Amino acid sequence: MQETSADVSSRRTFAIISHPDAGKTTLTEKLLYYGGAIQMAGTVKGRKSKLHATSDWMAMEQERGISVTSSVMQFPYRGCLLNLLDTPGHGDFSEDTYRTLTAVDSALMVIDAAKGVEQRTVQLMDVCRMRSTPITTFINKLDREGRDPVELLDEIESVLKIRCAPVTWPLGMGKSFRGVYHLEHDRVRLFADGEVIEGLDNPRLDQLFPYEVEHWREQIELVREASESFDHQQYLDGELTPVYFGSAINDFGIRELLDDFTDHAPGPLSRDAGRRVAAEESTFSGFVFKIQANMDPQHRDRIAFMRVCSGRFEPGMKLHQVRTGKDVKVPRATTFLASDRSHADTALPGDIIGIHNHGTIIIGDTFTEGEKLHFKGIPDFAPELFRRVVLRDPMRMKALQKGLQQLCEEGATQLFRPLIGSEWIVGAVGALQFDVAAYRLRNEYGVECSFEPVQVFTARWVECDDAKMLERFKSRNESALAYDGTDALAYLAPTRANLDITQERWPDVTFHATRDR
Ligand code: GDP
């Protein structure tokens, strides 16, 4: 059966970005519920705790209440097929979280009304900005006392550098939260019972809220005057975000959000792979943005998560792995319909497939039907945490090196070999990654090691067109320089001040916070 391009454009591949506890899990649950993927709210949380403990590895996840295995949730909604990519956020925050954002076409941002813009959200938005990803904003927990909505929007604009176009507006907050008003539809939905009231001048509002309604009317008039109205193109360009208010746990304000999201969010976008690859092209292409190891301890295999960019994937297909130049037959792949992993029939652009392999696929790999494409923008991100590796048994050095190199290729952790000294430094974005690395080194490579603190604040990949200048830079900063797993030169700044001073002193040297694979 030939798929029409309408099927491709109906895909909405997105992620939720938020700071821990803002309500991402709760919102995910409601979205899956609306998509008919789960029967009852509560299932996503349940999945966190009810992981089958089939291995120590899984036991480790379970102990920590972390789901490393829930990755992609596909569900239908109003004629669209939504692919929600999980962005691990609590202890399991890692580079995967960042890289997942390179595989989506848009994102939903959840902000806690009491807390406003928090640090993790800032970091995730930095990644979204790299590709001008369209952002839809949901301000959550209006059933609690929170901050003034105008102040919240100001904060989003100034801290996250994106203009806000409120689409709904809250009527009251906390104990006096009465509902949301849809600025475009001129319609109120009440929090207490979901009643819909057409028009802000509707006398029904005066009748129900005689002491509050005038204030709302004044406020909304001001909001209309002072704020931007939604502009679809500016949204698609990542310059403006539509903003919705509600309460995820009370399933309030979510349908408005989801309806507009499916209408406005882009389908699979074209991507740069040396040339621009359009989703509508008939030949297959895709790239790997995440590797997950040991999902099945019996087989020690890894799953490579691939975003389909063009064409279609069919089981049994022969794919060309551009990096190695080899053709590999993919007898089966995993798809993620309705949060259940099941065998794929076909996958279209925007969809994610999981390919089993034994370490032959690495992050950033492009697969095609033969064309030498290379999808750009699946970078390594400067780690935020650093530890030095202390090996217990010096005889196991070779095994340690092999293991660390492999983990590095998978993108689980990053490896740095300082120019001076023999000690190796491992970098990660989330603290759990060190535990995972130690666990896997022990189990897969028979190496006992520990990760000890080291005085490194951040890493920057350095580049300089002037070879002589680079040599001078190297000799002056030898003690803070290292080669990463791919022999690229990195500056390991002991403190933020060091980084600032060094950057100032060497204006012709560029310091990159990300590095394209
Ligand atoms: P995550 O860490 O972003 O996934 O956040 P969760 O969805 O786990 O929510 C964090 C906490 O906030 C949980 O205790 C939720 O029950 C609570 N929560 C989520 N949404 C709301 C809401 O709309 N109102 C209130 N009062 N609490 C909420």
Task: Please give a handful of descriptors for the protein shown.
RF3_dom_3_sf; binds guanosine-5'-diphosphate; 3 domains; 517 residues; Rossmann fold; globular; alpha+beta; seven-stranded mixed β-sheet; Alpha-Beta Plaits; cytoplasm
Q: What would your notes on this structure say?
A:
Residues 9-269 form the Tr-type G domain. By secondary structure, the chain is α+β, with helices and mostly antiparallel strands. It folds into three domains: 16-66 and 106-265, P-loop containing nucleotide triphosphate hydrolases (Rossmann fold); 272-368, P-loop containing nucleotide triphosphate hydrolases (Rossmann fold), CATH 3.40.50; 382-516, Alpha-Beta Plaits, CATH 3.30.70.3280. 28% of the residues lie in helices and 29% in strands. It has 15 helices and 31 strands. A hairpin with a 4-residue loop joins β28 and β29. α12 (397-410) packs across α13 (432-445). The chain is globular and about 80 Å long. The model is unreliable at 40-58, 60-69 and 338-343 (pLDDT under 50). The site of guanosine-5'-diphosphate (GDP) has 16 residues, from α2.
SSE diagram, text form:
Layout: H1 5-9, E1 11-18, H2 24-34, H3 43-49, H4 56-63, E2 72-77, E3 80-85, H5 95-100, E4 106-112, H6 119-130, E5 135-140, H7 149-160, E6 163-166, E7 168-171, E8 179-182, E9 187-190, E10 196-198, H8 203-208, H9 213-226, H10 232-236, E11 240-245, H11 254-264, E12 271-272, E13 276-277, E14 285-293, E15 302-310, E16 317-321, E17 326-330, E18 334-335, E19 342-343, E20 352-357, E21 366-368, E22 379-381, E23 385-391, H12 397-410, E24 414-418, E25 425-428, H13 432-445, E26 449-453, E27 458-463, H14 467-476, E28 481-484, E29 489-493, H15 496-505, E30 510-512, E31 514-516
Parallel strand pairs: 1-3, 1-4, 4-5, 5-11, 6-11
Antiparallel strand pairs: 2-3, 7-8, 8-9, 9-10, 12-13, 14-15, 14-21, 15-20, 16-17, 16-21, 18-19, 22-31, 23-25, 23-26, 24-25, 24-28, 27-29, 27-30, 28-29
Helix pairs in contact: 12-13
The structure holds guanosine-5'-diphosphate.
GO molecular function: GTP binding; GTPase activity; guanosine tetraphosphate binding; translation release factor activity, codon nonspecific; translation release factor activity, codon specific
InterPro entries: EF-G-like_DII (IPR053905), EFG_III/V (IPR035647), G_TR_CS (IPR031157), P-loop_NTPase (IPR027417), PrfC (IPR004548), RF3_C (IPR032090), RF3_dom_3_sf (IPR038467), RF3_GTP-bd (IPR041732)
Protein name: Peptide chain release factor 3
